[in-house]
Amino acid sequence: MGESEWLAREAAEGSSAAFGVLVRRHQSQLRGFLLRMTKGNHALADDLAQETFLEAFRKIAQFGSGSFFGWLSAIAYSRYLMEARKRKLEPLDETAEIPDDAPEAETASLVKLDLERAMARLAPVQRAALTLCFALGLSHEEAAAALKLPLGTLKSHVSRGREKLAAMLSAWRDKVES
Amino acid sequence: MTIDDLLNQPLTSVADDGFSAHVMGRVRAGERRNLFAVAAAAVLCTVLALLFVPVQRIGADLNLALIQIAQSAAVSVAVAAVILTLLFEREFVRS
Q1: Would you call A10 exposed, middle or buried from its count of C-beta atoms within 10 A (0-12, 13-18, 19+)?
Q2: Is there a single domain that holds both residue A50 and residue A24?
């Protein structure tokens, strides 16, 4: 059992100090994840992160085995989906048309910025799957549990999202070079 | 740089800037609210119970029971035995 999982057990037994350590330890990752999900909307990402931690505290007794951050991501993703539906932030359907907002030539060389822009054009479920599996290092099983998807579906979202990203980045690079 | 290298880059670190303290403040406020709600519910239940329970009759019955106990020879013998044991223990065992 990892240190976060042990702290979660302590928190489940009533230690709010242990939960405080978990908040400090995971706030950056969680806010980073939600920042990517909300396409860089800091205020909304922070609101969602706060609500995620508060819900996690209320439900901490339900935390079972597995990664604490995976469990936290599941709450965060479900909160994000609720908010996206309520505010109509973006189409949640994977097949929905996404407007073409390719970067300007002068900024396209900034690889990190390219990635964020390309990520913003993916369907939310693919953005979440790629972020959890790559940047946040969750296993496919953990990410599938967090997104409440069957393992095969998660793998297919990862694969399709990765292909779309590669195609977008390559097209943008061609546009810059031409 | 391959697409996998790009994807494997960690997310940009987000500075805490009081975020954790704010979350924990809300957690503690929630705990206080819950505690208050439980205490208020207990008081309310007690008050409601007292409205419907015949307290005076219960008190009278208790008084009667205490008097009957005090008048019982068996209880008197038992109480005397306990008192004598305590006195004996204080006089001889502790010294």
Answers
A1: middle
A2: yes
pLDDT at residue B95 is higher than 90 = no
Judgement on whether residues A16 and A47 belong to the same structural domain of the protein: yes
pLDDT at A105: 42
Whether A38 and A52 map to the same domain: the answer is yes
B7 part of contact set with chain A, CB < 8 Å: yes
Instruction: Evaluate if pTM is beyond 0.90.
Output: no
CATH number at residue A2: 1.10.1740.10
Host domain of residue A53? 1-89
- Please judge whether A112 and B20 are an interchain contact, meaning their C-beta atoms are less than 8 angstroms apart: no
Q: Answer with the residue of higher pLDDT: A86 or A76.
A: A76
d(CA A92, CA A100): 17
Residue B50: band (very low, low, confident or very high) from pLDDT cuts 50, 70, 90: confident
Cα separation of A64 and A60, whole Å? 9
Residues of A in contact with B8 (CB under 8 A): 134-135
Put simply, the answer to whether B23 touches A16 (Cβ < 8 Å) is no
Secondary structure letter of residue B22 according to DSSP: H
Q: Which residues of A touch B23 (CB under 8 A)?
A: 23, 27, 50, 53-54
Q: Answer yes or no: do A83 and A14 share one domain.
A: yes
pLDDT confidence band for A129 (50 / 70 / 90):
very high
